Amino acid sequence: MSTNTTKYLAPTNGKFKLKNFDTDYKGHLDKNTVKEDLAEVKAELSKLQEVLYASGTYSILVILQAMDAAGKDSAIEHVMSGVNPQGCQVYSFKTPSSEEYRHDFLWRHYKSLPERGKIGIHNRSHYENVLVCKVHPEYILSENIGGVSNVKQIDQDFWKNRYESIRSFEKHLTDNGTIVLKFFLYVSKDEQKKRFLERIDDETKNWKFSAGDLKERALWDKYMDAYEEAIKETSTENAPWYVIPADEKWYSRLAVSQILKDTLKSLNLQYPQLPEEEKEQLKSLKKQLLDEK
To answer: Which residues form the signal peptide (predicted)?
Structure first.
């Protein structure tokens, strides 16, 4: 299986436009044949993750952002089903707690970073602070930031500083051995409607839907503007954004899996090599085992 993953890359020159990306791109692939491709990618991903874990020199931070029903949960389930749970950790971020509100907006995300040798997945992330909060600036007031006592004070300079904080945060991570992979699962408004209706019609999925989902859907254009601005401001050489077509879940799963696999492969990691004296000791220990009666 081969697909050019660079086509999902958002430009890092500040000229990103969401309209230049498709929600329904599938290339030459189809759902009936892609299962074998995904299984192949996942098998290789499993081997690469084992070397990542053994080497303990890098960590991988996977960030998944999307509108509701775009397939974040299912992407996590399918992409990571082939890796060792011991080397993977998933965090799904909800509304901040009272303790989290008493710290800066990056604090709870920093606490949840993967250690070296592990893959960490953030289902929603620090980007909620320039996405949901951009659409609902009144949420910022809950942070109780000095000098910000009303929505009028949350101006362009405020958002400019917040984007700068994110860029600095991610540069610090990459400078210290964390590979940052940021995915925007780009679903169309029509496809979201279809999936919402499925959640209503299927009793086993009713729990996934609420009236609040429709309230946020009514703000679709504002969210698209917020995503475009956030990606434009924070897609960098060290931490680029990938805009993944998400109208077909099977395609988005394959794309995310392949990018993760290709990234791990590019690190050229090796299993740790023992010093010669320890190798000699292993020979002695092997002989001891073989000599047992």
So the answer is: none
The rounded radius of gyration (Å) of the Cα atoms in the chain is: 22
Torsions phi, psi for 91 (to 5 deg): -125, 130
Angle at 95 between CA 254 and CA 168, to 5 degrees: 70
- The verdict on pTM exceeding 0.85 is yes
Q: Could you give the CA distance from residue 71 to residue 27 in angstroms, rounded to a whole number?
A: 19
**Predicted confidence band at 3 (pLDDT cuts at 50, 70, 90)?**
low
What CATH number should be reported for the domain whose range is 5-290?
A: 3.40.50.300
Q: Are 248 and 256 in contact (CB under 8 A)?
A: no
pLDDT at site 1 = 43
User: Burial, 75: exposed, middle or buried (Cβ in 10 Å; 0-12, 13-18, 19+)?
Assistant: buried
The C-alpha atoms of residue 213 and residue 99 are separated, in whole angstroms, by 26
Contact 170, 239 (CB under 8 A): yes
- The C-alpha atoms of residue 125 and residue 108 are separated, in whole angstroms, by 10
Residue 112: phi, psi to the nearest 5? -100, 15
